[in-house]
Design a protein that fits this description.
The protein has about 700 residues and is α/β, with parallel strands linked by helices. It folds into three domains: about 75-150 and about 350-520, Rossmann fold (3-Layer(aba) Sandwich), CATH 3.40.50; about 155-340 and about 545-555, Dimethylsulfoxide Reductase, domain 2, CATH 3.40.228; about 575-700, Barwin-like endoglucanases, CATH 2.40.40.20. Helices cover about 30% and strands about 15% of the residues. Strand 9 (about 210), helix 9 and strand 10 (about 225) form a beta-alpha-beta unit. Helix 10 (about 235-245) packs across helix 12, helix 10 packs across helix 14 and helix 10 (about 235-245) runs parallel beside helix 15 (about 315-325). It is globular. The N and C termini lie far apart (about 65 Å). The model is unreliable at about 1-5 (pLDDT under 50). Bound molecules: ligand MGD (2 copies) and molybdenum atom. One ligand MGD binds near residues 123, 423, 596, 597 and 659.
């Protein structure tokens, strides 16, 4: 560590410290943490940050309750009861690290080598240091299996990449200048609340706000209109909207001619997609589809906010690709407030190669994280090669969030599997561990963050000393590397060095994003104009440099090179036999006060809430289910208990289980992921959480 950074290392005893919200959310807020006598006493949103605008969400307002929670893991623990019993005894860090190093070392030297080790992590924190630096270096050097991190967004990301070239879209800060806002498969008030003020500004100037969602979410209720689309059918709606725009002369022919590829083929394709045809698929009246196409085509700068909900179906990649064609047809990319945003993440070009050091890894197999059940239960891990003998989990709670939990639990129960979990709490996953290591929270470590809903880079400074004996993930992997005799100098880098390495890049958009500026202000806007109009004059990062209505890359994958509708695997019309037994599509999207499975154990946020299942009154009546009744949601993969909520908050044929509950806090030890499948999406090998047929019946 260089002398220059030393003064920053210790958190202050008193004062306000600038931090970043670590959670997996588009908003990545700039936080101000008040510290008094070494204890954090308040967290607040930075009023100067253009997206945070001075407020935090319902969950992160409780961050102190989480940090100082009586159940915080404060020392390393070793299993003393049977697997999964949750019985542990404290051990010292030395004992814990020695044992892990010995067990992993034996596997590396054994007949199968490092590939029998599987790291498993996702976005418990999105910080680059605590989520993708020392950990990656460590596993790369051991020659561990690689993990394909697909659980959330890869289908949509690939869909965006095929059409516009990258997962980078319109700037939410421009949305206030929009004249039509479509919230498409996104529950903004729950999962992206800092976007809402921009929506309200646009609405105040007259922009209609429309939600397209099978569920009448709290967001849809606040919109001017709710369009209750059938699950997984969004591409059909987008194709018909383009049909109307071309048929009625509403396309921006100049933009199309300059900046797009394959317009003639697209025109021919969407000619087949009349509103009437799309109506039978989407369940939306043809007249409403035609009018939506007209509204979109006559608007000057429609902001289409898509979120990841709509791509959690088999055809999710193609659906996102198809929707992403709309602003190019209408020319809306030209103007502030126009365009589509799935994410802004590709805007951030940190030097992740330097952080992760993939060059340290020998050629190894890759395991898809959403197939963890298969990976742990099949002899060749489901992909060829050795069985998984050790699993190291951090920043994730797969025993609650991974699909097909029955298979996941069978795998975690294996007596011969050595499982290490780095955590803040005894989660569903930690219960299955052999060794649990206490990790620091965001108030206790350094980090640097990208965002996927805006274009600001954010630094996190520690505001308090680690609680108990907790250590940052980065430090834990550093210590393990030393224990295992890994001598590459990269294992000496401290967290501030890692941050500097992440920022050390010649990329144009990263110019001006320096450690010094981040220290001073907490956050820095990328080197892009405000609002950022990435495709106003083309410049699509596709192979052709154009918006690709026609995609050679899709053709090369054996897929339809043109936008099309790819139905879900589990809809009555695609799986008629299955649907006879399981006629309802279950959507298990986020519950307002949970963040995936994080915060479920925070009393003030969970309250006395039980797992719930929202049903349309017709579907409930047909099953003799009334509001408040205990029900079982089930299919061939599994089942979970819930309280029925009956009304008109979902469209008929759809059930909603707000998620993701900890199974150990559920009445029957199960959650919605007992029913979800390990299936993969058409693009990106992503999860199909909402492509899920079930039935619901009274519990007793
Ligand atoms: N409070 C809270 N905030 C969160 C999260 C959380 O768990 N809680 N999760 C975070 C994470 S990890 C992510 S990835 C992001 C985004 O998180 P997402 O998982 O995208 O969550 P939502 O924004 O709720 O979007 C899901 C919406 O899509 C709808 N939907 C489902 N299927 C379809 C479909 O086929 N078509 C259409 N049009 N709509 C459909 C659902 O009904 C739901 O309202 O949010 C983040 N923010
Ligand atoms: N049925 C259903 N399943 C879903 C979803 C859904 O909508 N429906 N959503 C999916 C989506 S979008 C996602 S992104 C995934 C999310 O899945 P995960 O990324 O696994 O997210 P969480 O459930 O929030 O678990 C994160 C864990 O990381 C821990 N953690 C946080 N910070 C740190 C840290 O600094 N160090 C360590 N060691 N641990 C830390 C937290 O305590 C928490 O237990 O779930 C998916 N699963
Ligand atoms: Mo996610």
């Amino acid at each position: 560590m260089s002398a220059a950074v030393r003064p920053y290392l210790a958190p202050p005893t008193n004062g306000i410290v600038r931090g970043a919200c670590p959670h997996d959310c588009p908003d990545t807020c700039a936080m101000l943490v008040t510290v008094e006598n070494g204890r954090a006493t308040r967290v607040a949103g930075d009023p100067d940050h253009p997206f945070t605008q001075g407020f935090l969400c319902a969950k992160v307002n409780r961050y102190l309750e989480r940090t100082y929670h009586a159940d915080r893991l404060t020392q390393p623990m070793k299993r003393v009861g049977p697997k999964g019993s949750g019985k542990f005894a404290p051990v010292t860090w030395d004992e814990a690290l020695d044992e892990i190093a010995a067990r992993l070392g034996a596997i590396v030297r054994g007949p199968h080598g490092g590939q029998a080790i599987l790291p498993y992590s996702y976005a418990g924190t999105m910080g680059l240091v605590q989520a993708e630096s020392m950990d990656r270096r460590f596993f790369h050097t051991l020659g561990a299996s690689k993990l394909d991190r697909t659980i959330c967004s890869t289908a949509g990301m690939e869909g965006m990449r095929m059409t516009v070239g990258a997962n980078m879209g319109a700037d939410g800060e421009g949305a206030s200048q929009s004249d039509l806002i479509l919230l498409w498969g996104t529950n903004t008030l729950t999962s992206n609340p800092h976007f809402w003020p921009f929506v309200l500004e646009a609405r105040a100037k007259g922009a209609p706000v429309i939600a397209i969602d099978p569920i009448r979410t709290r967001t849809a209720e606040q919109c001017d209109e709710w369009i209750g689309i059938r699950p997984g059918t969004d591409a059909a709606l987008a194709l018909a909207m383009m049909h109307v725009m071309f048929a009625e002369g509403l396309a921006d022919e100049d933009y199309i001619a300059r900046y797009t590829l394959g317009a003639d083929q697209l025109r021919a394709r969407v000619a087949e997609w009349t509103p009437e045809r799309a109506s039978t698929i989407t369940g939306i009246p043809a007249e409403r589809i035609a009018r939506l196409g007209r509204q979109y085509g006559t608007a000057k700068a429609a902001f289409l906010r898509a979120n990841y909900g709509l791509q959690r179906h088999y055809g999710g990649g193609m659906a996102m690709r198809t929707i992403a064609c709309l602003p190019a047809v209408a020319g809306h990319w030209r103007r502030p407030g126009g365009g589509v945003q799935l994410s802004t993440s590709f805007g951030f070009r940190y030097n992740t190669a330097a952080l992760q050091r993939a060059d340290l890894s020998p050629p190894v197999r890759t395991i898809n994280m959403i197939r963890l059940g298969d990976a742990l239960t099949l002899p060749d891990a489901g992909v060829g090669g050795p069985p998984v003998q050790a699993l190291v989990v951090y920043n994730s709670n797969p025993a609650a969030v991974a699909p097909d939990l029955g298979a996941v639990r069978r795998g975690l129960a294996r007596e011969d599997l050595f499982t290490v979990v780095l955590e803040h709490f005894m989660t569903d996953t930690a219960d299955w561990a052999d060794i649990v290591l206490p990790a620091t929270t965001q108030l206790e470590h350094w980090d640097v963050h990208f965002a996927y809903g805006h274009y600001q880079s954010t630094l996190n400074r520690p505001s308090i000393a680690p609680v108990g004996q907790a250590k940052p993930n980065s430090e834990i992997f550093r210590l393990l590397a030393a224990r295992m005799g890994l001598t590459d100098p990269c294992f000496q880098d401290d967290d501030i060095t890692l941050i500097r390495q992440a920022l050390d890049t010649p990329h144009e958009r990263m110019q001006g994003v320096t450690f010094e500026r981040l220290l001073e202000r907490g956050w820095v806007r990328l080197n892009v104009p405000r609002p950022f109009l990435p495709y106003a004059e083309g410049n699509f990062p596709t192979p052709s440099g154009k918006c690709e209505f026609y995609s050679e890359r899709l053709a090369a994958l054996g897929m339809d090179p043109l936008p099309t509708y790819t139905p879900p695997k589990e809809l009555p019309e695609t799986a008629p036999e299955l649907a006879k037994r399981f006629p309802l599509v279950l959507i298990s999207s986020p519950r307002h006060k949970f963040l995936n499975s994080t915060f479920v154990n925070i009393r003030s946020l969970r309250g006395d809430a039980q797992p719930e299942c929202v049903l349309h009154e017709q579907d409930a009546a047909a099953r003799g289910i009334t509001d408040g009744m205990a029900v079982v949601v089930h299919n061939d993969r599994g089942h979970f208990r819930a309280l029925a909520r009956v009304g008109t908050g979902v469209r008929p044929g759809v059930a909603w289980a707000p998620s993701v509950f900890w199974t150990k806090l559920a009445p029957d030890g199960h959650n919605a992921n007992d029913t979800t499948s390990q299936g993969e999406t058409d693009l990106g090998r992503g999860a199909v959480f909402y492509d899920n047929l079930v039935d619901v019946q009274p519990a007793d």
